[in-house]
C-alpha cells in the first residue's frame, strides 16, 4: 500500500515510541505528541490502531536490512554468516532500537495473523537465501555436501534471533559474542 508522507511520519513516530517504551506505549494520542501532529490528524491518517501498526511494520521492514559488507556468502560462507549475526546484534543504539521494534511486532504475531504472515514471509525469504548460499558453498567445495542446507538456514536464523534477543537484556562484549557465534557457525557447517 502506498503511504502518504504524513502516514510515514506518524509511523516513524510510533516506531520511536516502541523503541523507547514498547508497543503498549503506542496510542493515537502518544503518536500525536511524539510527531507534533494533532490527535485528529493521526485519526484521519489511520482508521484504527491496527492500521497504524501495519504502517509501522512496513516502515520497520524497509530499515532492517543487515549491514553486511560485500557479496553474500563471501569471502567464505563461514565468515559471512558470522558477520550477518553480528550485524543484527544490538551493539549500538540504532540496532538496539530496531531489535526492540522487531521484538514488539514478534510478540503480536501469534495474535495478529497479518503481522504473523509478514514476519513468516520475511523469515522464509532469509532462510531461502541462506540455503542457497549453503548449496553454493557446497558446489564450490567450501563445505561438505553432507551439510543440510535447510538445517543451516533454520539454525542461523534462530541463532540471529536468539543472540539479538538475549543481548537486549544481557549485554555481552562484541568480542565474546563473535567468538561464540563463530563456534556455533563452525558447528552447523561441520567445519
Automatic annotation (TrEMBL):
Residue ranges of domain HTH tetR-type in the record: 4-64
Any one GO MF annotation of this record: transcription cis-regulatory region binding
InterPro entries: BetI_C, Homeodomain-like_sf, HTH-type_TetR-like_transc_reg, HTH_TetR, Tet_transcr_reg_TetR-rel_C_sf
DNA-binding region as annotated in the record: 27-46
Ranges in a coiled coil: none
Domain of life: Bacteria
Pfam families hit by this protein: TetR_C_6, TetR_N
The entry's keywords: DNA-binding, Repressor, Transcription, Transcription regulation
The name this protein goes by in its record: TetR/AcrR family transcriptional regulator
Organism encoding this protein: Candidatus Phosphoribacter hodrii
